Amino acid sequence: MHNTLPTLQLSFTILNMLYIRGNQAYKKGDLSAAENCYKQGLSCVSKVEASRSCLRALLLCYSNLAATHMSLGRMRDALEDCKMAAEIDQNFLKVQLRAAK
């Protein structure tokens, strides 16, 4: 158990860093880099192991990955991202709106 907490904290830190980098790339219009950052971030933490704060970060990564996929015209991928986010929090309004588009 002692090894799990530091590992989760490191994963959470990496996830947040990649989320921020993804947001920066998205704002610059570098959608490929944004997609890569969000996907790398999502691979850092499993939903099963995630703490409450990690789940929120995962939710935001899935949501922003959906927005990126929509901007790339990849609606099926965006819908899958929305479904993954909805599994974490079905009341998150941005995901519902993106899925509806």
Summarize the structure.
The protein has 101 residues and is an all-alpha fold. The chain contains 5 helices and no strands. It has a single domain, classed as Tetratricopeptide repeat domain (Serine Threonine Protein Phosphatase 5, Tetratricopeptide repeat, Alpha Horseshoe).
The number of distinct structural domains comes to 1
What is the rounded Rg?
13 Å
Beta-strand content: under 5%
The tally of beta strands, per DSSP, is 0
Q: What share of the residues lie within helices?
A: over 70%
According to CATH, what is the topology?
A: Serine Threonine Protein Phosphatase 5, Tetratricopeptide repeat
Low-confidence stretches: none
Q: What's the order of the H and E elements?
A: HHHHH
Distance between the termini: 43 Å
Name the overall outline: globular
Tally of alpha and pi helices: 5
CATH C-level label: Mainly Alpha
Could you say which structural class the secondary elements and strand pairing correspond to? mainly alpha
CATH architecture: Alpha Horseshoe
Q: How confident overall, as mean pLDDT?
A: 85
Keywords:
101 residues; mainly alpha; Serine Threonine Protein Phosphatase 5, Tetratricopeptide repeat; 5 helices; globular
Write the layout of secondary structure elements.
Layout: H1 4-28, H2 31-44, H3 52-71, H4 75-88, H5 93-100
Helix pairs in contact: 1-2, 1-3, 2-3, 3-4, 4-5
Q: Can you describe what's shown?
A:
- The structure is a single chain.
- The protein has 101 residues and is mainly α.
- It has one domain (4-100): Serine Threonine Protein Phosphatase 5, Tetratricopeptide repeat (Alpha Horseshoe), CATH 1.25.40.10.
- 80% of the residues lie in helices and 0% in strands.
- It has five helices and no strands.
- The protein has helices spanning 4-28, 31-44, 52-71, 75-88, 93-100.
- The chain is globular, with a radius of gyration of 13 Å.
- The model has no long low-confidence stretch (mean pLDDT 85).
